[in-house]
Design a protein that fits this description.
The protein is an alpha/beta fold. It contains five helices and five strands; from the N terminus they run βαβαβαβαβα. α1 links the parallel β1 and β2.
Length: about 130
């Protein structure tokens, strides 16, 4: 069975493009347009196998989302691949401190995302 990946991004186009990449790679994809919506969705849907999360979002940002996910026992070990368009030398440190397993720069090349997601899923045993 294909791994289920939750995409959390408030940018409709970015979310759509990530979905295309993950669909083509054979993942089962669920989307949330905000961190708050993702938390609600997981409350009703359950635990995804992995998450792809934007760092900068309106409302709750990706860092706070990661902290909240890591505080919930059933979600504590779900791999989180965070993406950002920020060019901040401290963003990797901030993302990892919040609980992200990987931090990627947003780009048109899907390979880093697919590689990080596969690595994270292998490490988690999913």
């Amino acid at each position: 069975m294909a791994a289920t990946v939750l995409i959390v991004d408030d940018d409709d186009l970015d979310r759509f493009l990530v979905r295309l990449v993950l669909d083509a790679a054979g993942y089962r994809v669920i989307e949330a347009p905000s961190a708050e919506a993702a938390l609600k969705l997981m409350g009703s849907f359950g635990r995804p196998d992995a998450m792809v999360v934007d760092y900068v979002m309106t409302g709750m940002d990706g860092g706070e989302f990661c902290r909240q996910v890591r505080a919930k026992a059933p979600l504590k070990h779900v791999p989180i691949v965070m993406r950002t368009g920020l060019e901040n030398p401290y963003i990797d440190e901030l993302a990892r401190a919040a609980g992200a397993d990987h931090l990627l720069a947003k780009s048109g090349d899907p390979s880093p995302l697919l590689d990080a997601l596969a690595q994270a899923l292998r490490a988690s045993g999913a």
